[in-house]
Design the sequence.
């Protein structure tokens, strides 16, 4: 969808903002451009909508060389979201959102209808917020309106320049979550500029790590964190890149242990015997369809081994996640519930139990992921040595 071919931007004073950039962004892909201030990432973005013209090289949008496209027409085909949002203070939220479709010749009534749909999509009820003015909104709400306005003309490409940088950390995380959810629905081709490596890792399908006017590494977040291409990248992503990598490493079924399992209608005597046979301190409790229900400790089974069924003594399961959740979520869940393990269920079903993730298995999963990316193989092909 977007292709840079040997693009350079050099100013009259001799400053080179970007130097011989060549890379591609696939349709529907979200690429984060990350690096320190003055590294050329915003210049790169602004050359896509010709707010800045390159000195050398060519940029293609959906196969078309943009140097031959009228800049105004080009910008109307590209959504653009900036940190300051840039809403018109004299227009309502609904009219701000409808601005671009109306400029493109869409009837005002149709543009407003489209605007209402998009406000609802970004989590702002148009009946509540549509008639408000920008000054009546919080910073996070204004950012959502900015995203809705950028999507109003249904552009194939969305450019986002530090869009969440002006809000507090709590709101910023919420906006990131909402944007990821939105992107999963609209699948726009996105260039997202940020100076925050954690934001880049969290949002990007791929990351372009900028040095001074050049891209030092362009790869998936897990690869950038696990196998930095240069000492500069290693230093930029930080010594704690292993912890950052937890957020981009999903739980896989091969990471799980299989503990003793009992069912709700099993006699307690059966539960006690199964725990004793496997020398386990607890068992997972499932319903008749193998969906997760809870757990039972060995002490309870032994003390009540002759009485009733498991249903009467099972404990509620607090610590669980669907397969595919990140290792960071798993680690956080363990800490939140002071749990030595978490249950993992099928994300496509209604809670079918798959296994449990322990701290040791979490550590192994992270090590396998790093090794797999370094060798360009799947995690299941990697064996790690364990101490025990």
Sequence:
């Amino acid at each position: 969808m977007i292709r840079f071919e040997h693009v350079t931007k050099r100013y009259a004073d001799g400053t080179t903002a970007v130097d011989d950039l060549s890379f591609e962004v696939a349709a529907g892909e979200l690429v984060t451009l990350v690096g320190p201030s003055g590294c050329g990432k915003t210049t790169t973005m602004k050359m896509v909508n010709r707010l800045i013209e390159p000195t050398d090289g060519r940029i293609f949008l959906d196969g078309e060389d943009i140097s031959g496209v009228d800049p105004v027409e080009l910008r109307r085909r590209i959504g653009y979201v900036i940190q300051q949002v840039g809403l018109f203070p004299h227009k309502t939220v609904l009219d701000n959102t409808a601005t671009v479709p109306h400029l493109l010749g869409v009837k005002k009534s149709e543009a407003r209808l489209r605007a209402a749909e998009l406000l609802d999509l970004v989590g702002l009820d148009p009946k509540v917020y549509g008639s408000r003015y920008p000054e009546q909104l919080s910073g996070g709400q204004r950012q959502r309106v900015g995203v809705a306005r950028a999507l109003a003309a249904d552009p194939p490409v969305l450019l986002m320049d530090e869009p969440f940088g002006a809000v507090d950390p709590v709101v910023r995380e919420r906006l990131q979550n909402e944007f990821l959810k939105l992107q999963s629905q609209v699948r726009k081709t996105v260039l997202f500029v940020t100076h925050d490596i954690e934001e880049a890792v969290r949002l990007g399908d791929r990351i372009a790590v900028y040095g001074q006017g050049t891209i030092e590494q362009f790869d998936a977040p897990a690869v950038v964190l696990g196998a930095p291409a240069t000492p500069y990248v290693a230093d930029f992503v930080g010594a704690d890149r292993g912890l950052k990598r937890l957020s981009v490493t999903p739980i896989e079924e091969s990471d799980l242990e299989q503990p003793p399992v009992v069912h709700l209608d099993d006699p307690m005597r059966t539960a006690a015997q199964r725990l004793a046979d496997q020398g386990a301190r607890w068992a997972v409790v499932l319903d008749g369809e193998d969906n997760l229900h809870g757990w039972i400790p060995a002490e309870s089974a032994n003390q009540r081994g002759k009485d009733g069924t498991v249903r009467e003594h099972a404990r509620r399961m607090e610590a669980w996640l669907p397969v595919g959740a990140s290792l960071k979520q798993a680690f956080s869940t363990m800490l939140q519930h002071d749990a030595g393990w978490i249950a993992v269920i099928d994300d496509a079903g209604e809670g079918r139990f798959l296994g449990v993730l322990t701290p040791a298995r979490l550590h192994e999963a992270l090590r396998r992921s790093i090794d797999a990316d370094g060798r360009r193989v799947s995690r299941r092909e990697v064996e790690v040595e364990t101490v025990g």
Notes: The chain has a mean pLDDT of 88. The CA atoms of residues 185 and 384 lie 37 Å apart. Residues 169-186 form the longest helix (18 residues). The chain has two domains: 2-247, 253-365.
